[in-house]
Write a structure and sequence with these properties.
432 residues; alpha/beta; five-stranded mixed beta sheet; 11 strands; 48% helix
């Protein structure tokens, strides 16, 4: 790209010089048009620009449509620079993003929660709070992606996780949807005693949602969120005190055979536990909002599907995790990048994105038209009841660390061993 850009600049200079030998006004027009045509924004993400004729990937096409709005309005081109494991010798997407941001290789990046926190703490992400679109953002979006008072990333959607339940099987055994951890345990007991081998289908990625719902229900819904997070960030409070009950709960679930720990340890999300859920061999799984709208996941079941929040002391609790677009502080095309973000994150563009993907918008002005299966989860979110599984304002990264510790539990570690590792992680975060 740099060589091509240099060649174009050289060509523009030659044209300008030639025109100067003839008529000055013509040279001015040529230089202006050539310069205007080369305006670009370099975006690094996980997806390539979709084929205009390809309709199978609605998520990709929805994003492309918002990008097209910016390209047309600003007369520029957004260049997609994409990640593939083959190109990066099996490095993870997060590892590659960290390297590219630290070396100033792109303008704007799609960032996962853990990289948002790391790069924000390193001061490598621009404060986006001055963008016009920010005034329309939900408070939860600003809370999740703010570090030291700086809004360092903004998503196009809010990802909500919940329990996916087979309503028909619950009715067969005269069970109500669980509100509390104790009620979920009782539902599992009834299913197990009636021949359901594994009441909860699980994978190695999302069991931490059960832990988060129990750990942070009071923190995010008790009116004292900032003070409680500050106590954790200062070391006055311990994450292990919050998270231990959830880990003990999962361990009991495994010991009773309500969760197959050995299978969950190896299962990929949906691919592992999905077939048994669809075949009605297990009544409960956990997944993200979009899986209820996708035919390749759970959007086309042979039973009545309902998506509810994870049981907690305060009732069914949606668990939210937010990614986002962050801008490098050394972006080569800074002005164009910020103008582009303001368009693709505007209410007009987010309305298009939300309608196509049927997701929760980061804008407080846009409501999603969800299907009946998602109504219980959506109702709780609209009430303002949720917990965050990713919060860049917490010095210890949540989503990835807790996921790995739950995997340790699945692999045979004790709760005490997991809590010791958690304490070590908190100590390391305090030293940074």
């Amino acid at each position: 790209m740099r060589r091509l850009s240099a060649a174009c600049l050289a060509g523009a200079a030659v044209l300008a010089m030639t025109a100067c030998m003839a008529k000055a006004p013509l040279s001015n027009n040529l230089v202006a048009n050539e310069t205007e045509a080369k305006r670009t924004v370099n975006l690094f993400g996980s997806m390539e620009k979709s084929n205009p004729d390809a309709a199978e990937n609605t998520s990709r096409n929805a994003f492309d449509m918002t990008v097209m709005k910016a390209e047309e309005k600003l007369n520029l081109t957004v260049e997609y620079r994409t990640y593939t494991a083959e190109n990066y010798m099996e490095k993870t997407y997060d590892e590659v993003v960290l390297d590219r941001v630290r070396n100033g290789m792109d303008d704007v990046y799609l960032l996962n929660p853990d990289t948002i926190r790391i790069l924000g703490e390193e001061g490598l992400l621009l404060d986006l709070s001055g963008l016009e679109c920010v005034k329309n953002l939900r408070d939860v979006v600003k809370m999740a992606n703010t570090i030291d008072g700086k809004l360092v990333a903004i998503p196009q959607e809010v990802v909500a996780y919940g329990l996916f339940v087979n309503k028909d099987m619950f009715e067969t055994y005269h069970l109500e949807f669980p509100e509390t951890p104790e009620e979920l345990m009782e539902c599992c007991r009834v299913f197990k005693e009636n021949g359901i081998q594994t009441p909860i289908g699980a994978n190695r990625w999302w069991l931490e949602c059960i832990v988060f719902a129990q750990a942070y229900a009071d923190m995010y819904n008790g009116g004292n969120t900032e003070a409680m997070i500050e106590a954790l960030n200062s070391g006055e409070a311990k994450y292990s005190d919050y998270l231990r009950p959830g880990f003990e709960y999962l361990k009991e679930m495994m010991d009773r055979g309500y969760i197959d720990a050995q299978a969950a340890y190896t299962y990929e999300a949906i691919e592992g536990e999905g077939p048994d859920f669809l075949a009605q061999k297990t009544p409960i799984v956990m997944a993200y909002w979009g899986a209820a709208n996708t035919a390749t996941a759970y959007g086309n079941t042979d039973f009545e599907l309902q998506v509810i929040g994870f049981p907690s002391s305060l009732g069914q609790m949606p668990v939210l995790a937010l990614s986002g677009y962050g801008v490098s502080v050394s972006a080569e095309h800074m002005e164009e990048t910020l103008d582009t973000l303001d368009i693709i994150l505007s209410d007009e563009a987010l309305q298009v994105y939300t309608e196509i993907n049927r997701v929760i918008s980061p804008s407080k002005n846009i409501e999603v038209e969800c299907g009946s299966a998602l109504k219980p989860l959506n109702d709780r979110i609209k009430e303002g009841s949720y917990v965050l599984a990713s919060n860049a304002g917490m010095k210890m990264e949540q989503w990835g660390n807790v996921c790995l510790l739950v995997r340790e539990l699945l692999g045979g570690a004790t709760v005490d061993q997991c809590m010791e590792q958690l304490d070590t992680l908190q100590e390391e975060s305090l030293e940074r």
